[in-house]
């Protein structure tokens, strides 16, 4: 990941501003200057890199060519990309890296790999706060037009040891209802937007999930997970559970940065209390709802008159 930060720094120092102005801005390509037929023929199939986009908040994103890590069976693409993000009104960009995963579709005649349904599974912007990081990830996801989520097939093949191309069908549009969880005892529902997206914490070996409203942490490899519920903490060896009370937290929690991002977490650490009743923890990576009852079902007659 550090290599990509160096990559962005190198490009920002060597590529003139006029070169980036020719990149795609706000999902559209600037009109090309007159060129010869040979130059037009040399245009990359995917439109070229880097690509620049304007965000809804008035910021600016420059996305550099992703580096492909794996593409097993030509179905699921894993790649890393360097990003320069300039917030609205800021004079200098913030540099970071993303891990992007997506199921792919291949167009052999056009020499393109489509990754329109991508997920950012990891992000690292060392200079951004926790809330800023979530905002930037959301803006990157929403600012890249779906029709531009493509990369040249030849670029991908150059990075992986495979030559067999197997196009796959486009799945139909789904409108599935949310998953319903039901409990007759105290319970909580931890909603995660698809797979957990982990971000490092400066000078700490803890990582936190940025795509959930819960304080969810991971530590070590294989990971042990920690979840805050008020002033009580729970732990699990799998993010899906089962979750049990965490009677003692690792020392890494006491080393969290002393800033507003971790105010509630630090308060829970200093006032940690064992839960009188450990709730049932439901974890869902898709849209879900929780129906919680105070004990068994109780019925009463309804007066229909």
Task: Write up this protein.
With 305 residues, this protein is of the alpha+beta class. The protein folds into two domains: 2-159, Bactericidal permeability-increasing protein, domain 1 (Super Roll), CATH 3.15.10; 179-292, no CATH class. The chain contains six helices and 19 strands. The strands form five sheets. Strands 1, 2, 3, 4, 5 and 8 form a six-stranded antiparallel β-sheet that branches. It has a six-stranded antiparallel β-sheet with strand order 12-13-14-15-16-17, with no helix packed on it. The chain is globular. The relative contact order is 0.12. Residues 1-41 and 162-168 have low confidence and may be disordered.
Q: Counting H and I runs of at least 4 residues, what is the number of helices?
A: 6
What's the structural domain tally? 2
Q: Strand tally, please?
A: 19
Cα-to-Cα separation, first versus last residue: 69 Å
Secondary structure class reads alpha+beta
Overall pLDDT score: 81
Radius of gyration computed on alpha carbons: 23 Å
What's the main sheet like? 6 strands, antiparallel
β-strand percent reads: 25-35%
Specify the CATH class of the largest domain: Alpha Beta
Residue ranges: pLDDT <50 for 5 or more in a row?
Answer: 1-41, 162-168
